[in-house]
Design goal:
The structure holds 2 protein chains of 2 kinds.
Chain A (H helix, E strand, L loop, with lengths): L1 H27 L5 H4 L7 H11 L5 H13 L13 H36 L4 H15 L2 H15 L15 H35 L2 H8 L4 H19 L1 H18 L5 H10 L3 H29 L6
Chain B lengths: L1 H9 L10 H14 L1 H18 L1 H4 L31 H36 L1 H15 L3 H12 L3 H27 L3 H8 L4 H9 L4 H24 L11 H7 L9 H28 L1 H6 L1
Helix pairs in contact in B: 1-11, 2-13, 3-5, 3-13, 5-6, 5-8, 5-11, 5-13, 6-8, 7-8, 8-11, 9-10, 11-12, 11-13, 12-13
The chains are: A mainly alpha, B mainly alpha.
Chain lengths: 313, 301
């Protein structure tokens, strides 16, 4: 097992290296560099050159890349061009909102996805299955920001059930916190919940076709027992490891609802930085997201190998 | 999105070695006949595509002419989808918007199929290039599509061409990985060995024996990419880094209604509805194709 973990971690290193190169290259293909960003009409050419030197932009690309990478590893994610604040300090106050959205998004997706997927698998190809799967395809297809608008229109403007925009921090009380998150989290969890329901269904159908399920049925066990004790127990391992993909799927959704509902989170920070061409922030957030992606996948693989030794070849 | 793509890549079909393209098409036709929801999806797909093509014939107002006197009118016999804050007919805009969105979707799907097939075949057949190609693919896949597109838009500016390119690039690794997997299992098959034995060259084997057998999986994946890029383009427009507003896609149109949500919700509603219907239709077709073309899954269910 340790050997497997070590090998997987080693395998991830070249990917991380390529990811870093892509991240760095992506934001540096832009015409004009950071110095131009801070450029205002009454600044002379000498001053721009001076600024470029102070930002280290006059050095060769490779040197800049290595410098950036080394600092990143040491935990220095760079400094925002406009705010002149370290990226890490910009991120800290926004972390709570994004983590909260992701948390409730996960909860909603699981609560919707697993039962619906199981019901669909129970009567596979029946009417219920078709209805659930059609609903799931709808959840997969609908763009979250459009759905968010409709929800705002219906449940905030027409019926005053939820606040239309804004985020209430958890320190203001659990209920206001949840109320401010209910709509955005429900909207993004429709997509991930749909994916989860589909995956749960196919995993369950696979397990229900196994010999031991037939044996359980042949023994005369009640259908409910067969379903929950024999089938779901065995299906639960892949279903739980799918949580990792769920988490990753929520990253994109979070960006959209943070914009629609004016929630001050990391997604908003990224979009604002993109619009302002604030390169260090974009670079840091892009790199962090890719790191999260690679390592969540890694952890999922390791959990999988832990519960299912056949994987550790 | 990443989640969906992954699940599809995993659920992807094995081959039935002897079956050629013609048999596949027969399978496709049979699938449509047996699956009414899939047929409905196809009809919706056709209607929306044709309406986008025939936009000048089936719309009655200029999609760009503003008319302040008729601003923010609710849907009526004259303006089926109402008018926006500048008095532009939302129906005409929506139908014309389909052209932009579908163009993006089709272009990305074609580029992804082409690039994915090429890199997948090369990686599957050439052991030296396999490693590097797959490492780069892994790295590109580590960025959620939307984030990659955001970064490119930040660097190069949002134009339709840039959006198509970045969506294609982020879609290619998935397709390449899929094709490579198919090639790796196909190359051990007897019919490939047979072709080798009678002296067929490598390009010939790849073109005539391996590529057609990846068809089923690619069709499914391509439909996913098609649907996904329409949504992604709309998403980028929403975030303000998408296509320029003089070529309004469905995404641009949805955003346009943002400030009038309380008083005139139809401005955002109808373009979004058409977009959702289209993507829904494509996804339903893709699912149906997967079930029909995947012999392994068919056997099991």
């Amino acid at each position: 097992m340790q050997q497997y973990i070590a090998r997987r971690i080693l395998q991830s290193l070249p990917i991380i290296a390529v990811v870093a190169v892509i991240t760095f290259a992506l934001v540096h293909v832009a015409p004009g560099d950071a110095a131009y960003m801070l450029f205002s009409p009454n600044v002379s050419v000498e001053q721009i050159e001076e600024l470029r030197r102070s930002l280290g932009l006059d050095r060769p690309m490779v040197v800049q890349f290595v410098d950036w990478a080394v600092r990143f590893i040491r935990g220095d994610l760079g400094t925002g061009l406009l705010s002149k604040q370290p990226v890490l300090d910009l991120m800290k106050p926004r972390l709570e909102a994004t983590v909260s959205i992701t948390f409730w998004g996960m909860v909603f997706s699981i609560v919707m996805g697993i039962p619906l997927g199981m019901v669909a698998a129970w009567k596979a190809h029946g009417l219920i299955d078709r209805a659930v799967m059609l609903a799931a395809v709808f959840g997969l297809s609908v763009p979250s920001f459009w759905l968010a608008y409709i929800f705002v229109w219906a449940f905030a403007l027409q019926l005053p059930w939820f606040p239309a925009i804004g985020y209430t921090p958890i320190s203001d009380g659990l209920w206001p916190w949840f109320r401010s998150l209910a709509m955005p989290c429900f909207v993004i969890s429709l997509h991930t919940g749909a994916v989860y329901a589909r995956m749960t269904r196919s995993t369950m159908i696979e397990v229900l076709n196994e010999d031991y399920v037939r044996t359980a049925r042949a023994k005369g066990l009640a259908e409910f027992n067969v379903f929950v004790r024999h089938a779901f127990k065995n299906a639960s391992i892949p279903i739980i490891t799918l949580l990792g993909f769920l988490f990753i799927g929520l990253i994109t959704g979070t960006i959209f609802v943070e914009i629609v509902f004016a929630i001050p989170g990391l997604g908003r920070l990224l979009v604002d930085a993109v619009k302002a061409h604030d390169i260090p922030i974009v670079q840091a957030l892009l790199m962090l997201t890719a790191l999260v992606y690679v390592y969540v996948n890694l952890i999922v693989d390791i959990i999988y190998a832990y519960v299912d030794p056949r994987i550790r070849y | 999105m990443a989640v969906g793509e992954r699940s599809a890549a995993r659920a992807v079909p094995n081959r039935s070695p002897s079956a050629g393209l013609r048999t596949r098409w027969r399978g496709v036709r049979r699938a449509f006949a047996k699956n009414p929801i899939m047929l409905l999806g196809f009809v919706i797909f056709l209607i929306i595509s044709l309406s986008a093509l025939a936009a000048p014939i089936i719309t009655f107002h200029d999609p760009v002419r503003t008319n302040i006197e008729e601003r923010l009118e609710p849907p009526s016999a004259d303006h089926w989808f109402g008018t926006d804050h500048l008095g532009v007919d939302v129906y005409a805009r929506t139908i014309y918007g389909g052209r932009v969105s579908l163009f993006v979707g089709v272009s990305v799907a074609i580029l992804v199929i082409g690039g994915g097939l090429f890199f997948g075949l090369v990686a599957g057949y050439n052991r030296k290039l396999d490693g590097p190609i797959m490492r780069v693919a892994d790295a590109v896949m580590a960025f959620p599509t939307l984030l990659l597109a955001l970064a490119v838009a930040a660097a190069l500016g949002g134009s339709i061409r840039n959006i198509i390119l970045v969506l294609a690039i982020s879609g290619m690794p998935g397709m390449a990985r899929l094709v490579r997997g198919q090639v790796l299992s196909l190359r051990e098959q007897q019919f490939v060995e047979g072709a080798k034995a009678i002296g067929a060259t490598m390009p010939r084997i790849l073109t005539y024996h391996v590529a057609p057998n990846t068809f089923a999986a690619m069709m499914v994946m391509a439909s996913l990419v098609f649907a996904g890029s329409i949504v992604a383009e709309a998403g980028l427009a929403f975030l303000g880094v998408g296509a320029p507003t003089f070529a309004p896609s469905w995404g641009n149109l949805i955003v346009r209604g943002r400030d009038f949500l309380g008083s005139s919700p139809w401005i955002s509603f109808f373009p979004g509805l058409l977009l959702t219907l289209m993507v829904l239709a494509i996804n339903v077709i893709g699912d149906g194709l997967r079930d029909a073309l995947d012999p392994r899954l068919r056997r099991r269910l």
